Amino acid sequence: MSAHIIDGKAFAASVRSDVAKDVQSLKQKHGITPGLAVVIVGEDPASQVYVRNKVKQTSEVGMNGFHFEYPADTQEEEVLQKVHELNNDPAVNGILVQLPLPDHMNETAIIEAISPEKDVDGFHVVNSGLLATGGKGLVPCTPLGCYLMLKDHLGDLSGKKAIVVGRSNIVGKPMAQLLLDASCTVTIAHSRTKDLPAEVAQADIVVAAVGRPEMIKGDWIKQDATVIDVGINRIPAPERGQGKHRLVGDVEYATASENAGAITPVPGGVGPMTIACLLKNTVTATYRQNDIKK
Ligand SMILES: NC(=O)C1=CN([C@@H]2O[C@H](COP(=O)(O)OP(=O)(O)OC[C@H]3O[C@@H](n4cnc5c(N)ncnc54)[C@H](OP(=O)(O)O)[C@@H]3O)[C@@H](O)[C@H]2O)C=CC1
Ligand SMILES: Nc1nc(=O)c2c([nH]1)NC[C@@H]1CN(c3ccc(C(=O)N[C@@H](CCC(=O)O)C(=O)O)cc3)C=[N+]21
C-alpha cells in the first residue's frame, strides 16, 4: 500500500487564508494592521529561502513586515538594542530572530530579551514554560504546524503511541509536549537512544526532527503509521547538473511510503506549515496584545 501524502503546501495555504481574514477584520473593526519583525544576522544560506518566503507571505496576508539584516560580525549589544526597540514599538506585534546566530553571540540572551507577548517563535522560556504547564502562551511554529497536520489527518490523537526523534528546544521538546497534551503516549528519542529502529517500530505517529538525511529507514515504520518529516537537508544532486542540490527529509521517503498510512513530503510538508503558523502566531499575538477576543 502506498501512503496518503499529507499536502503541507495546500494546508498551509488554507491556514494563510484564515489568517488573511483575521487580518482584514483587525483592520476594519479595530484599525490595527498586525506587524511582524524579522531580524537576521549573518548569511546562513539555508535560511535565505525561509526568509524570502516569510517576507513574501507576510505581505500576501495583509500584514506589515519589518526586515532587519546585520552582517555576521555585528556585536551582540547591537542586536539586543534592536530587540528592545522592537519590544517597545506598537506597530510590531511579533518578533523573530533568525537562528542560528553567529558563534560569538549568546543565543539564549537574545531570545530571552524578546518580550514573551511578541515572541511568535515561542522560544522564550516563559512560552516554553507555559506550554509545559498547560498555559496559554505562543507555541513554536514548526511543532504547531506538525500538530495541526496530525489533528487534521487523524482527528483524536488520544491513546496513540507517538515517537519524536530529536530533543531540541525548538522542535523535539515542544513537539513532544503537544503530543502529550493531546493524550498520546510519547517517547522522545535522541542520539543516545539504544535501539532506535525498535522504538520507531512501535509508534503510531513518528515525528522525525534529527537533521540527518533519510536516517529513519522505511522498514522501521509500523504498518499504517503516520509519519511527519521535519528534516530539511540539502544534499548534492549531480543528476540535476553540476553543483546542484535537492532537499530531502530525515525519513527515507520512498520506502517509508510503502509502510506508512500517511506521510509528509519534503519539500511541501512541514516547511510551508511552519511559515503559515508564524503568521498565525502573529495574529494571535496581535489579538492578545490588544485584548481583543476572536
Ligand atoms: N521544516 C521546518 O520548518 C524546520 C525544519 N527543521 C529541520 O529539522 C531538523 C531538526 O532540527 P533541530 O531540532 O533544530 O536540530 P538539532 O540539531 O537541534 O537537534 C537534532 C536532534 O536529533 C538528535 N539526533 C542526532 N543524531 C541522531 C541519531 N543518530 N539518532 C537519534 N537522534 C539523533 C539529537 O540528539 P542529541 O540531543 O542527543 O544530540 C538532537 O536532539 C533539521 O533537519 C532542521 O533543518 C528545523 C526547524 C524548522
Ligand atoms: N527563529 C527561527 N525560527 C524558525 O522557525 C527557523 C529559524 N529561526 N531558522 C531556520 C529554521 C528552518 N525553518 C524553515 C521554515 C520553512 C521552510 C520551508 O518553507 N521549506 C520549504 C522548501 C523551501 C526550499 O525549497 O528550500 C518546504 O519544505 O517545502 C524551511 C525551513 C525555520 N526555521
TrEMBL record:
Name the Pfam families for this protein.
THF_DHG_CYH, THF_DHG_CYH_C
Pathway named in the protein's UniProt entry:
One-carbon metabolism; tetrahydrofolate interconversion
- Which residues lie in coiled coils? none
Residues binding NADP(+) are G166, R167, S168, I232
- Is Amino-acid biosynthesis given among the entry's keywords? yes
Got a GO cellular component term for this one? cytosol
Q: Which InterPro entries match?
A: Aminoacid_DH-like_N_sf, NAD(P)-bd_dom_sf, THF_DH/CycHdrlase, THF_DH/CycHdrlase_cat_dom, THF_DH/CycHdrlase_CS, THF_DH/CycHdrlase_NAD-bd_dom
Q: Which UniProt keywords apply?
A: Amino-acid biosynthesis, Histidine biosynthesis, Hydrolase, Methionine biosynthesis, Multifunctional enzyme, NADP, One-carbon metabolism, Oxidoreductase, Purine biosynthesis
| Record's signal peptide | none
Q: Name one GO biological process term.
A: tetrahydrofolate interconversion
Q: Where is the Tetrahydrofolate dehydrogenase/cyclohydrolase catalytic domain?
A: 6-121
- This enzyme's EC code(s): 1.5.1.5, 3.5.4.9
Q: Does the keyword Membrane apply?
A: no
| One of the record's GO molecular function terms | methenyltetrahydrofolate cyclohydrolase activity
Task: Give the family this protein belongs to, as stated in its UniProt record.
Answer: Belongs to the tetrahydrofolate dehydrogenase/cyclohydrolase family.
Q: What does this protein do?
A: Catalyzes the oxidation of 5,10-methylenetetrahydrofolate to 5,10-methenyltetrahydrofolate and then the hydrolysis of 5,10-methenyltetrahydrofolate to 10-formyltetrahydrofolate.
Q: What is this protein called?
A: Bifunctional protein FolD
